[in-house]
Write a structure and sequence with these properties.
seven-stranded parallel sheet; five-stranded parallel sheet; binds flavin-adenine dinucleotide; Rossmann fold; alpha/beta; 17 strands; elongated; 9 helices; 27% helix
Length: 307
């Protein structure tokens, strides 16, 4: 099976999810070709075990992000077969556009995949999981932190191709990330707060515990909408980020279906909510029926004992 991976980049290097994409492709018996837009991360990609070839796709369009332009460049550079990207905002955009250009199906946010291209992915905002089998060429995006990453030690050949696309988006100003904190999309432990936190100042309790545990702080949409200090970058859910950490602690979050869509595949879910009927308890592995004011100090003290 011919698999081409669109490398996910972060700054001047590869995002960790790229190793997971290679790991998933290798589990299907493929030696994928990895495309690196603007050549970013090409040397790193060549060192990933299992990579067959790395193509640096250089072109003017890679100086800024424009999904249409990137898709045109990658489409021209990639061979036929399966196009794989990460199920990030950027990856979903680019892979869907390549699939549209080629007239092939696209399966987004895949959480399991086996030989024969049998895949599982969420539908109806995560209310159900659908199993699909695709024969022939297709586009696929894979959920981060779901597939085992390929290790290092590879030495794939690298080549450069010059391809670009028409940039139709003009970036007026790039504003630096408001926070240098760990992003929820990259975290293995997430502590999220909802409207039940009562105000943005109370998120300090969540930051303190997250810092101790090496985790990130997320939020529900109600919290993001209500409070200036809680930016949209922290939002987990249907219109926020999809996360898949080992541990997700939901504090003062009711568990609306749109929130669950973004976090229900977390390996362990802990919920703190004063309402025993809150829907979050239906997906929680461990539930604490209490106010966060009561529960958080106890939880923090117990966690401190084991760290
Ligand atoms: C199209 C669409 C997209 C959406 N996308 C998203 C999305 O991406 N992410 C998202 O989160 N939501 C999303 N929503 C909104 C979603 O429907 C809910 O409104 C939202 O998730 C509710 O947030 P919440 O749980 O923080 O607030 P609430 O539903 O108000 O729940 C607050 C909870 O806190 C508990 N509580 C109160 N005080 C305390 C206390 N002191 N201690 C402990 N518990 C306490 C309450 O019992 C309650 O369960 C979307 C909605 C729509 C229509």
């Amino acid at each position: 099976m011919d698999i081409t991976i669109i490398a996910e980049t972060q700054g001047n290097g590869l995002h960790a999810v790229t190793n997971q994409l290679v790991g998933a492709a290798s589990s299907l018996g493929a030696s994928p070709t990895v495309l690196c837009g603007g050549g970013v991360g090409a040397d790193e990609a060549a060192g990933i075990a299992g990579v067959g070839k790395v193509l640096s796709v250089t072109g003017d369009c890679f100086s800024t992000f424009d999904g249409g332009a990137w898709a045109a460049a990658f489409d021209a550079a990639a061979g036929s077969g399966v196009i794989v990207g990460a199920a990030t905002a950027q990856g979903r955009d680019v892979v869907a556009r390549i699939a549209a250009r080629r007239g092939i199906p696209v399966v987004q946010d895949v959480v399991s995949m086996s030989p024969g291209l049998n895949m599982t992915h969420p539908i109806y905002s995560g209310k159900a999981m659908q199993e699909v089998t695709v024969s022939g060429d297709c586009g696929v995006t894979l959920r981060a932190n779901t597939f085992a990453p390929a290790g290092g030690g590879g030495s794939a050949e690298t080549a450069t191709v010059q391809q670009s696309g028409d940039v139709k988006i003009a970036v007026q100003e790039a504003i630096a990330k408001a926070s240098e904190r760990l992003d929820v999309a990259d975290a293995d432990i997430i502590i999220s707060g909802g409207r039940g936190m009562g105000g943005p100042e109370n998120f300090d309790k969540l930051y303190a515990l997250a810092d101790e545990m090496g985790g990130a702080v997320g939020a529900s949409r109600a919290a993001v909408d209500a409070w200036d200090g809680i930016p949209h970058t922290m939002q987990v859910g249907q219109t926020g980020k999809t996360v898949n950490p080992s541990l997700y602690i939901a504090v003062g979050i009711s568990g609306a279906i749109q929130h669950l869509a973004g976090m229900r595949t977390s390996k362990y879910i802990v919920a703190i909510n004063k309402d025993p009927e809150a829907p979050i308890f239906k997906v929680a592995d461990y539930g604490i029926v209490a106010t966060w004011e009561e529960a958080m100090p106890v939880l923090a003290a117990e966690i401190a004992k084991i760290l």
